Amino acid sequence: PQKNQSNAWGTFEKDAFEYLYGEGDKLKDSLKAIELFKKAEKLGSRKASIELIKLKDGGSKKSNKSLKVLSALREEGEIEASYLLLKHYSYQEEIENCIKLSKEIISKGKLIDVPILEESVFELAKIAIYRCSEYGYDVEYIEQISRQESESIIRFLENFQDENIENSSDKIILAINLGTLSKFLEEHGSEYTHLF
Question: What pLDDT, on the 0 to 100 scale, is given for residue 10?
Fold first, then answer.
């Protein structure tokens, strides 16, 4: 986009968010927000495309049209698109896609919002524990992963172990629902005390 187009979509985005949340002197108006996001999207705004999907195709399960747009945005490096795809595939219980997307998001670490990072770590740890019958969960009616796959995920999460956090110059804030991950903590908790 040319510079004047970039400024234009920035103005449309700003106004759209103000209408979406009722900020400043604007009344909350999701229809007006959608109209402005559409204008910003036509000028090339990726953020507007994501917001339109969130507004028009809310919930975890996404339409084929939204999936196509989100996949294209993911390929352009939009982490929020990866996150919305993760939510969709988690809802659909497509585990391989969930693992890939979670790892992709977590690998970006400092570049993303903490809640997105937290949910991605949670999703990955949940898969490692609850989808592996070796941890004692009944996985008869869900897609399972092998002990080897579970251990591979846990090795990936080792980047968040105490010794790796202490020796790293990269610091992140991470919070996980401990009740939900109690089995993970029983097995590996002593290695992750700085996170909890």
Answer: 92
